[in-house]
Amino acid sequence: MIKILRWAENRFVQADQIERHCLINVVNPGKEELEKLTVEMRIPSDFLTDPMDIDERSRIETENGFLLIVLRLPKYNEGSDVPFTTFPAGIVLTKDDTIVFVSSSDIMDILNLSDNRLKGVADGKRSSVILHIFLKTALLYLRYLKEINRKYGEIEHELQKSLKNKELIKLLNIEKSLVFFMTSLKSNELMMERLMKTELLKLTADDKDRLEDVLIENRQAIETANIYSNILSGMMDAFASVISNNLNVVMKILTSITVILMIPTLAASIYGMNIELPFQHLPHAFYIITGTSFCALLLCAVIFKINKWF
């Protein structure tokens, strides 16, 4: 899908054709769409295909006057085993100041850039737009990290009573999300630091100050993800022990009940044999044997209770 947008009233709105200073949003393009962009805008084909590789790392590349910025963004996968992952998005800057977004997911929708006014973006200047995207990406990482912390708390509460590995596997999947986040955040940081040191984007003094603010937010996200990952790694072993201990407690109770119930079972087994047995000719033999077994059962239960064997 290819959507053409132009700058108007501090936001990008739908446009009918490609024009100077416009924004082209390319989402999960097909082969024909990629060829069309390559021919019409003379964009290097690698600049359009590389961001479609899910393993592409954040980087900067220039060729024939075109600038490619690959940024990794977070994504929430509803219903998936791993709730949060990351994906690459390519930002191509052309010679006529046109911005081209290329990704497998709609970054305009994920970063909520379509409906809202873009604060701090003056006249749709491409450097301001890119810095705004960087900032929104860092803030989205922080928001998702808060959501990860909330999910972690819910699973931790469930684990205290758990006897199975289901909750432990959920924690493992959350740990995978944190690994994805840390790897992507660190590569984003290296990319932005290189962008600040070079003149590829022609940043002004104000732009560099904004980029510094973005780097601060990005580093905060890295530290937060690192803290959560360390806590989670340390607690995984503890929770595994909790599950094992819960299972041991259940087995202990069931074993105690089994031992206690063996007393009337033994009496019933003995008196079920077809041989000469005590009390068998008495009219109340059944009540005597049952009462004796019940008393022995109660005595055994009291002993177990005193010794805390239940």
UniProtKB/TrEMBL annotation:
Keywords: Membrane, Transmembrane, Transmembrane helix. The keyword Transmembrane applies. One of its GO terms (cellular component) is membrane. Pfam families: CorA (PF01544). It is a multi-pass membrane protein. The chain crosses the membrane at residues 253-273, 285-304. SUPFAM superfamilies: CorA soluble domain-like, Magnesium transport protein CorA, transmembrane region. InterPro entries: CorA-like (IPR047199), CorA_cytoplasmic_dom (IPR045861), CorA_TM1_TM2 (IPR045863), MgTranspt_CorA/ZnTranspt_ZntB (IPR002523). Gene3D superfamilies: CorA soluble domain-like (3.30.460.20), Magnesium transport protein CorA, transmembrane region (1.20.58.340). It is found in: Membrane. It comes from the Bacteria. GO terms for molecular function: metal ion transmembrane transporter activity. Belongs to the CorA metal ion transporter (MIT) (TC 1.A.35) family. This is Magnesium transporter CorA. It comes from Desulfosarcina widdelii. The lineage of its organism: Bacteria, Pseudomonadati, Thermodesulfobacteriota, Desulfobacteria, Desulfobacterales.
